[in-house]
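Input.
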Amino acid sequence: MKRVEELRKMKDEDLDKRLSELRLELLKEQGNIKTGRPIKNPGRIKQIKKTIARILTIKRERKEGKGKNV
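Output.
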């Protein structure tokens, strides 16, 4: 739960920046798989996807007024 709390404390601009960084990293990791390169951390893709989902959920909650606005 520590990661969720850290994300909730971030400002919207920081969340957007982090989201774009994670999406780029996900594309790179998926590209490595498709080209047949060895993967350093196989669980990283799942971790990236979950973090992206968390960020999108927090952004949606804030937009609807349900979240903790910081």
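The chain is about 75% helix and 0% strand.
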